Amino acid sequence: MARGRTPLRRDARGRAAVSGDAARAPIPKSRDLIDQTQCETRMRDGMMAMFRGRAPGAAGSERRGAAARGAAALALGLLIGLGGCSYLGLGDETATPIAEERPVEELFGIAQNSLREGRYQTAILQFEEVERLYPISSYAKRSILGASVAAYRAGEYDKSALSAGRYLEFYPSDEQAPYAQYLIAMSSYDQITDVGRDQARTKAALQALRELINRYPNSEYTREAQLKLDLTLDHLAGKEMSIGRFYLKRGKYIGAINRFRTVVERYQTTTHVPEALHRLVEAYLALGVESEAQTAAAVLGHNFPGSDWYQDSYALLTGRDLRPEVDRGSWMNRAWSQLVEGEWL
Length: 345
What we know:
63% of the residues lie in helices and 0% in strands. The chain is mainly α.
């Protein structure tokens, strides 16, 4: 007997390119896997169950009880009629269920066809069915990755990352392992929110991107991963800057300094460093710590001499008869020296 699952409607969203084995198998012609006559027969059987549940001639409470039993029988009859049909894509003639009797190559091709036609929810179920029916075949491995791709395209990022993670657990050295790690990273990267919200997804993306770069430095996805890593770091730095400005405007100078210091120490390659150094000048001057303010301005002028932030910092210092000057014992001098000498991680 053919067995199928209920597919959802077509979802046009998709942002990951299909790669490797998940894009190469031949695609058979689409066709129904269920005899419609058999389906109609089961529908009639379900309707008969409805009529058997009625109790004509009953009166009073017996009639109400009979009506209740009739309603229950109606629901049961419909379930029997519909549930007996393997073709459950009601209203969706493009749905293609999976059947145990078909060879694994054909089942995998049907799942791929669903993926390429944008029926991602159907594809997920079909890839999972291939793995369930043929767990020790080579198609099981390919189906794990195919389900991850389909879930990613459907916007089910957590499910995509879970499938890709399973793939890496089973096949860490496989040629498609870099792509699986890429899907994990992108599943978090595509959920990054603005700097005003929690950045847990940003940190998860950062970790996954670093894992991809470190484990598979020569893969075709490494270059893109590096670009996205830089954007992720810039985003995290922007979060620290947002909080630091908030504290600075409210006179919470110690809290502000801690946030700007984080940017200077941890995110030195981002675009936020010049402003962070200038804000440190402002905060340290407000606290009366002139040596640190002078050091921040000196580091800013040495590394970003043409920036507007340095011009503003220079004006603040000269307005107090001070000049940019490095304090060799300052944390800023130590941190920047580590970066210049290649010791900074």
